[in-house]
Request: fold
Amino acid sequence: MDEARGAQQRLFVAVPLPEALAGFVREAQDLLPPAPGLRLMGPQQFHVTLAFIGEVDAAKAEAARAVIESVPAGMGGEGVFERFLLLPSPRKTRVVALELSDGEGSFKRLYEWVMSGLERAGVTQREKRPFRPHLTIARLRNPGMVQPRSESGRARYAIESVCLYRSELTPRGAVYTVLARKDLVNEVEA
Reply:
């Protein structure tokens, strides 16, 4: 067996941020005060995670790719960035995110479809905690308090595609590589 094919890969499934929203996210990051160990996410890391798969072998990676490629094209939709989200709690924040209001249920529907497919394929199991769509904009090395200077405002987040990513952890942060991408926007009829 080829050594590269047998290697474990750290994978996750996510909705990438549309390029048009990168400025909105940067403005939200600018509302964060300086804090020890605060690391801002870069534009290449902006996404809403649907499923963290974890370390898998090549066979499970291929099964995950097949699930992503089989997502129906009409599963797009949108959510709205509503407010900052401090995880796991405001007093012990490790992650600063923008929470998405999913009024149409678009993110939840896509999450359910992807998770069901990954479970049927034997790739991963559903997490026990409920799905809460959000986009991580910063991380803190040590838990602490970060109080944004004001709220971020609102912006619509269109689900244009869903991707299977490989995550490689480096001393400078995670590096993400798209392994599979499925466009979800319906084509305009002529």
In short: The mean pLDDT is 91.
